[in-house]
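Query structure, 214 tokens:
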């Protein structure tokens, strides 16, 4: 009888221990905070929504005709986008094209504020690039950093929008808006525009504005 009592006690202890473990697991699951970087189905849903927002941001900018001027917002003398910190950092933590004198940088203000309002205010980080064709090797793509805030995480989403630049277009940066076309700049040995004429026809180059958010 004593052995039976001990067996029942051990069984009861096992049941109680199982209940404690299950309770702890349930509590832990309820305490998990789901964030954009949390793995699983929710993460995929968040990433899908974030990708849609990134694509919408570029679509709105294209509809407002801001992407093509952005691709030409280049300062020949500094060899950077106008008013950018550097070629490596681009505009860094500032929105694109908003560091210039008042009233002289409105060509890119809308695009600069849009990613900040859409992503930065929600705690996300983004990089903005302009990819273009290499004139000597058209199948090769080169990249200029417009906004660079660090190395994207594994959870980053990417949105792109293609823009065609034509020979008869000029630069949009205030100090370089001197009437010279991209074709004329390309023929000048002193030119420092990042892209070169990659097409024998009226097209100068085809660029892709790429937004990376994480």
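Result returned for the query:
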């Amino acid at each position: 009888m004593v052995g039976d009592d001990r067996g029942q006690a051990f069984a009861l202890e096992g049941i109680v221990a199982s209940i404690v473990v299950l309770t702890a697991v349930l509590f832990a699951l309820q305490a998990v905070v789901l964030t954009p970087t949390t793995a699983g189905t929710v993460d995929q849903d968040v990433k899908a929504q974030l990708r849609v927002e990134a694509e919408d941001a570029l679509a709105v900018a294209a509809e407002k005709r801001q992407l093509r001027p952005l691709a030409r917002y280049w300062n020949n003398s500094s060899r950077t986008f106008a008013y950018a910190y550097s070629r490596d950092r681009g505009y860094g933590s500032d929105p694109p094209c908003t560091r210039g004198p008042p009233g002289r940088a409105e060509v890119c203000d809308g695009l600069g504020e849009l990613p900040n309002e859409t992503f930065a205010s929600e705690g996300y980080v983004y990089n903005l690039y302009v990819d273009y064709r290499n004139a000597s090797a058209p199948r090769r793509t080169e990249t200029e950093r417009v906004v660079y805030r660090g190395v994207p995480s594994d959870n980053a989403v990417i949105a792109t929008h293609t823009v065609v630049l034509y020979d008869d277009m000029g630069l949009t940066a205030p100090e370089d808006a001197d009437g010279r076309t991209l074709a004329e700049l390309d023929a000048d040995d002193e030119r420092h525009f990042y892209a070169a004429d990659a097409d024998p026809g009226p097209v100068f180059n085809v660029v892709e504005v790429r937004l990376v958010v994480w």
